[in-house]
Amino acid sequence: MNDARIHAMIDTLTSRVVLILGRFTSGQKAVLNAMRDELCERNDLPVLFDFEKPSHRTTLETISTLIHMAN
């Protein structure tokens, strides 16, 4: 982890990640796909989490964990 190239790669990756979090209906999938395509064209990295209500954590705890994984 002391390699400057690894640090640069991690910085680039975390600065490009865009989290899209929620519980989405089938009607919203087209909008999500359009958002994903636009973000990719802007050289961002969209990460979509479409999940059911968490059984062991609150929604806020789950979202907080995912946010801390991104910059």
Question: TL;DR?
Answer:
This protein has 71 residues and is of the alpha+beta class.
Structure description:
By secondary structure, the protein is of the alpha+beta class. The chain has one domain. It is built from 3 helices and 2 strands; from the N terminus they run H-E-H-E-H. Strands 1-2 form a two-stranded parallel sheet.
Keywords:
71 residues, alpha+beta, two-stranded parallel ribbon, 3 helices, 51% helix, flat
Q: Can you lay out the helices and strands and say which pair or pack?
A:
Layout: H1 4-16, E1 17-22, H2 29-41, E2 45-50, H3 59-68
Parallel strand pairs: 1-2
Beta-strand residue fraction: 15-25%
| Distance between the amino and carboxyl termini | 18 Å
Structural class: alpha+beta
Q: How many structural units, i.e. domains?
A: 1
Overall pLDDT, averaged?
Answer: 80
Question: Any low-confidence stretches, pLDDT <50, length ≥5?
Answer: none
List the total number of helices: 3
Task: Count the beta strands.
Answer: 2
Q: Please summarize the sheet with the most strands.
A: 2 strands, parallel
Helix content: 40-55%
Radius of gyration: 15 Å
Strand order of the largest sheet: 1-2
Instruction: Give helix and strand order, one letter per element, not per position.
Output: HEHEH
Which outline best applies? flat
